[in-house]
């Protein structure tokens, strides 16, 4: 299964001797706790059989990705269906005036942001195989509860609870998948569940239009049926996932012992100084994940991007309504579908390229101009077809950032603890952007929405500038790291102290 890595010459004799001893280790030994899979320079001590890795990767894809993708699909539907409910009469029935709708959207993001990091650390502590189904059940119940609200206060309360349960979903799944996949593989696998966001926009519009054709669902009518039916589906999926999700490779009944060892060893082989894939929660490593320069800049880019993504989710039906004001409600719902379908294709395409190239920042730089062009079209034209075409370009550029940003922060820390906190920080910043998006398209600004479109043009332009600057900084930092003497830097430090260095480890290199 595995062949020893070719010896690498070191200046330090002790390091060279340690490397020679590990040359004979196979994946079973390397996978065990207490054994490193890299030398102090970050070079893998084991070569893996590409065919064995491909078989394992395909098996993990089939057992893990479909379940989390379905859960995330309905997570996003349960969050965004309020946009479909609005044009079906929710705001009128609940007596909304002025900025009430924007305020209700904001309630979701307040709890979402507050519980982001605590939720992901709880996910690590409890184990994602149990935690993800549990929070899925919670937000399914909240969606169902929204069908029975009767005023502004009650819908605000339910949306606040929805935010608590959904806070752990995106970062929790990203962290969960990072237990199974290599750095280069992760972005594409993340895209396979994050693509459910644009598909939720498409499928949510189709589902809402189908539900609205019903006369009633029990005692419920109109928009109330949307929340009830979609909430019940989510509850059913979450119950099934309690039995289908497995926590980590070591507990996977569908893997042989040989495959379990390979799954652990190949992940460890990319993490300099790591002797265990699933370390205990550690304060220093948690802070390393949060305050990594790459985490903070990438998270801010994700904040900017989420102003666009969440704005589309909540206001696409309203925007389409202003473009095609004379169409029926069902026709308007259906018009929201095509841009999301095209956006979904690019959501998978860019991370697929990331997998093959093992690059993420370059794809940030390619995506931003698509969004910029779309918002320029919105601001420059009043023609319905041009503005509708702009939504396609925006969707193409915007949705891939969810996978790419999470993969980027995950690739640029070492330990499992730092990875959990880095991903949570990234998503927390992203949802601050979501909160901003709830106030970007204001009632007095329609039908042209100059404020919302101008804001999104500014965010996409800033994304391009920051991505280029971060890429240049990472290359400069890596050159400085190349000049360091790793042995001297680590001299006198215990193994625990070396592992607490995380991305400050002298053998670590930034991965753009």
UniProtKB/TrEMBL annotation:
Superkingdom of origin organism: Eukaryota
GO cellular component, one term: membrane
Keyword NAD attributed: no
InterPro entries: MFS (IPR011701), MFS_dom (IPR020846), MFS_trans_sf (IPR036259)
Lineage summary: Eukaryota, Fungi, Dikarya, Ascomycota, Pezizomycotina
Database matches in Gene3D superfamilies: MFS general substrate transporter like domains
Molecular function (Gene Ontology), one example: transmembrane transporter activity
Name of the molecule in the record: Putative MFS transporter
Topology term for the membrane: Multi-pass membrane protein
Alphabetical UniProt keywords: Membrane, Transmembrane, Transmembrane helix, Transport
Main location: membrane
Residue ranges of the TM segments: 60-79, 99-118, 130-152, 158-178, 190-211, 223-245, 294-317, 337-354, 361-380, 392-411, 423-442, 454-474
Domain Major facilitator superfamily (MFS) profile, residue spans: 64-479
UniProt subcellular location: Membrane
